[in-house]
């Protein structure tokens, strides 16, 4: 089949596949060259084995080093290093549009040492070799041999249709079709192919056998030759990628408006105990369910809050216990866990016994299990015994999504067996979030908002500063969403600085490991920067609440230079690991700073030079707040606001205080109705303590009432 010049990546991939054949019986040298790739590029080497003590590797995993969601710059650096180290002659690709990639959390084609079979990697090499022989001489005998090793590979854990056929497509894209999600959707469901042709294709199974796969390849190749629309598999795959991209854009454009973060759906990770010391694990695994107890308080849907659940537990089980953690776990099980979330089942604090994917919403059914009537359906994917990294929490159910390194360690126990098909099947929907949404929620004039957005985009680092109660933290995340145009929590991270926060928490540092010794663990900013680098087409926002409470020089270390807008994309060596690191150009930093906190020293000049500062003021005179006051229809509330405005005038006039100590509007927001108890609570428990910090010896009651 004639090869189109526009797919300039094909020659490079095919040449690299041919070169890799030489290392089938010399894998030690191949491993050393893989290590050399990352030494040359300064990019951190991905995890290819526990502790990266690599003893063997297959050719598909090697090609996957630059086909697993890397940012384009990093991808080209890895490819350039490969071309040099392996002596490739083909031009380095300039366009990667439409090339399928594997899930970065499931990028190896094998399980880690101790969990894989003795011949797993050997069989991948055989599949690789015979697939190339079949391309050179497509006889029936050779296809049968390829099919045998195809089926052996497909039978392994961690291998599915998408991953295995992507690997074959990489090495011979004109002879093998990738059954990744874009192609499958395009071929079977887009309507772009004649119905009679789609009907003639074998159905896609969970792990498709080689006979059906080759039948799909044959029929699609025949169809491609019979039409001018698809001249080859690369042409077809590129069209599928474009179709998927356009469909994704249409879905985003059609989303409804959202109010806060409750309407955002994303995949969460949970660690869960199936009964005391996993006593219910066998039964739950067999039935495909997960359950929690608390049968004493009945159907959990009858409670409208965690407090109500906690109260019921105290009344029906025992008044002398707190039940705070129990109420949180039951509330999360009912209201926060969602279909598509991933659950790790544990036994005690030292053992993991399996993992699965949540399939249904919460339901109450004491007839199914009298002791554990609060249930969800789960597609359990694995069962066994794995040593837990460190000690697990003792709670029945814990959301561990934010602890990314912990999640990665748990995934690694299963050879990162969260297969592409399973993860991609999870439907994640993010509502749009517009400028108008921001202006409706944050009391700010439109011209002020546009000025703030300009500062964020031009400087890339902005600090929202102002007195307490002006909504700095509330505004920060919504500002990020409004710039992104969508409420995607995966692209926004918020942390809070404090006096003990360190470089080790932020970037990387040594942490003790089980069995003695120390290992380098990456910090939250390092991980978030890497995440942003892998998705260069989208903006990412890192929000630092109370940024002036940390020791800035200590926390940022050598990164001070890298966060400047004109230094983005430059790489330096990190202090502990020596890894190359950069702050990507699509990452923005938003800090918040309380100007009334006199316990803090002046900000480091180096920080001030690298950030734009935006003053947020009380919004009592903004149209939005006035409308809010009118809706409440409370004369007493109006009198209190008028009094606070007069008090702010006194604060501004006081030489020892000034504008940075005014009382903000957020103390009075979020009220559906107003009565004397609400007003008294605001004054006695929020305003008076604040004012006492301002004027330690003055009696201020007459100023407020």
Task: Report the sheet with the most strands, covering strand number, pairing sense and barrel closure.
Answer: 7 strands, mixed
State the shape: globular
Structural class: alpha/beta
Helix content: 40-55%
Rg result: 29 Å
**How many DSSP E strands?**
16
Q: Short description, anyone?
A:
This protein has 705 residues and is an alpha/beta fold. Strand 13 and strand 14 (580-581) form a beta hairpin.
How would you explain this protein's 3D organization?
This protein is of the alpha/beta class and 705 residues long. The protein has 27 helices and 16 strands. Strands 1, 2, 3, 4, 5, 6 and 7 form a seven-stranded mixed β-sheet that branches. Strands 9-12-15-8-16 form a five-stranded parallel β-sheet. A two-stranded antiparallel sheet has the order 10-11. Helix 2 (27-41) packs across helix 4. The radius of gyration is 29 Å and the shape is globular. The N and C termini lie far apart (86 Å).
């Amino acid at each position: 089949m004639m090869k189109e010049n526009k797919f300039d990546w094909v020659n490079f991939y095919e040449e690299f596949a041919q070169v890799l054949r030489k290392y089938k019986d010399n894998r030690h040298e191949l491993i050393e060259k893989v290590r050399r790739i990352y030494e040359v590029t300064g990019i951190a080497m991905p995890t290819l084995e526990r502790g990266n003590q690599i003893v063997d590797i297959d050719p598909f995993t090697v090609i996957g080093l630059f086909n697993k969601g890397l940012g384009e710059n990093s991808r080209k650096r890895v490819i350039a290093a490969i071309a040099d180290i392996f002596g490739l002659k083909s031009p380095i690709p300039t366009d990667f549009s439409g090339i399928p990639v594997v899930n970065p959390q499931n990028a190896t084609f094998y399980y880690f040492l101790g969990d894989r079979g003795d011949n797993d990697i050997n069989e991948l090499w055989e599949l690789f070799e015979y697939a190339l022989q079949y391309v050179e001489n497509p006889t029936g005998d050779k296809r049968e041999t390829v099919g045998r090793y195809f089926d052996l590979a497909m039978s392994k854990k961690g291998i599915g249709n998408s991953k295995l056929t992507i690997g074959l497509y990489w090495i011979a894209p004109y002879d093998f079709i990738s059954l990744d999600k874009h192609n499958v959707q395009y071929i079977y469901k887009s309507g772009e192919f004649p119905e009679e042709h789609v009907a003639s294709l074998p159905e896609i199974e969970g792990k498709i056998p080689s006979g059906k796969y080759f039948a799909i390849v044959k029929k699609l190749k025949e169809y491609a030759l019979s039409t001018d629309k698809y001249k080859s598999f690369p042409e077809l795959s590129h069209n599928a990628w474009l179709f998927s991209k356009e469909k994704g854009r249409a879905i985003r454009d059609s989303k409804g408006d959202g109010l806060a973060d409750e309407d955002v759906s994303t995949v969460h990770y949970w660690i869960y105990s199936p009964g005391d010391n996993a006593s219910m694990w066998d039964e739950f695994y067999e039935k495909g369910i997960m359950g929690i107890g608390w049968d004493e308080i009945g159907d959990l849907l009858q409670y409208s809050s965690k407090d109500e659940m906690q109260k019921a537990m105290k009344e029906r089980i025992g008044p002398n216990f707190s039940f705070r953690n129990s109420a949180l776990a039951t509330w999360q099980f009912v209201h926060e866990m969602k279909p598509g979330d991933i659950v790790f089942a544990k036994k005690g604090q030292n053992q993991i016994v399996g993992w699965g994917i949540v399939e249904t919403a919460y339901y109450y059914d004491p007839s199914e299990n009298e002791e554990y009537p609060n249930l969800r359906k789960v597609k359990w994917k694995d069962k066994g015994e794995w040593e837990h990294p460190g000690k697990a929490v003792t709670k029945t159910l814990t959301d561990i999504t934010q602890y990314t390194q912990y999640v990665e360690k748990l995934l690694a126990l299963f050879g990162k067996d969260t297969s592409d098909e399973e993860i991609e099947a999870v439907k994640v929907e993010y509502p749009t979030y517009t400028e108008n949404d921001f202006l409706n929620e944050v009391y700010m004039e439109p011209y002020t908002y546009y000025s703030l957005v300009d500062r964020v985009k031009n400087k890339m680092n902005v600090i929202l500063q102002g007195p307490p109660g002006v909504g700095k933290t509330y505004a920060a995340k919504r500002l990020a969403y409004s710039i992104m145009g969508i409420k995607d929590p995966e692209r926004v991270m918020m942390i809070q600085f404090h006096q003990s926060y360190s470089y080790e928490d932020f970037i990387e540092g040594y942490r003790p490991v089980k069995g003695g010794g120390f290992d380098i663990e990456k910090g939250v900013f390092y991980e978030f920067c890497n995440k942003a680098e892998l998705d260069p087409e989208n903006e990412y926002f890192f929000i630092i609440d109370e940024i002036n409470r940390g020791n800035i020089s200590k926390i940022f270390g050598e990164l001070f230079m890298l966060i400047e807008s004109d230094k983005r994309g430059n790489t330096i060596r990190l202090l502990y690991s020596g890894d190359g690191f950069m702050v990507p150009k699509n990452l923005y930093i938003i800090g918040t700073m309380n100007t009334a906190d006199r316990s803090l020293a002046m900000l480091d000049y180096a920080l001030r030079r690298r950030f734009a500062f935006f003053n947020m003021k009380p919004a009592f005179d903004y149209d939005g707040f006035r409308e809010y006051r009118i809706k409440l229809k409370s004369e007493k509330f109006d009198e209190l606001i008028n009094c606070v405005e007069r008090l702010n005038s006194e604060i501004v006039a006081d030489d020892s205080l000034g504008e940075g100590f005014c009382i903000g509007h957020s103390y009075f927001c979020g009220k559906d109705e107003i009565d004397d108890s609400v007003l008294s609570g605001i004054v006695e428990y929020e305003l008076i303590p604040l004012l006492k910090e301002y004027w330690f010896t003055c009696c201020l009651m007459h100023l407020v009432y």
